[in-house]
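re the bet — no i am not wrong, look at it urself. input seq straight from the record:
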Amino acid sequence: MRTLCASTLIGEFFVIGFAGLVAMKDPDLSMTTVWTVSGVAMLLCLLLCGVVTRPWGVQLGWALQIALIASGFVVPTMFFMGAIFAALWWASVHYGRKVDEAKARFAAQAETEHKAA
């Protein structure tokens, strides 16, 4: 699960950075505000890569997905991009867990066969 989720988060890191560049063109937003919010979100993406396997890591990832969708109120394209990344996040968590379960099953089976031999 960690690999799939981390890949999604790294993709989000770049998308958030590009969205920050687009948001800078809004005359109502200061550059400081744009890059503070974007920087915190980008940092959160990186930190989540390391803690996604903890019980609260996935929930924090979902909060990030909601925030990414909500950023569409500032950069309208982010409604679409946020939805895409939320779907990728779901797939990463769902299929990542299945892969982890299969790996554990194969490891247990290999250990049982090794002991029997």
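see?? The first helix runs from residue 2 to 23. told u. also Helices lie at 2-23, 31-51, 55-70, 77-116. so pay up
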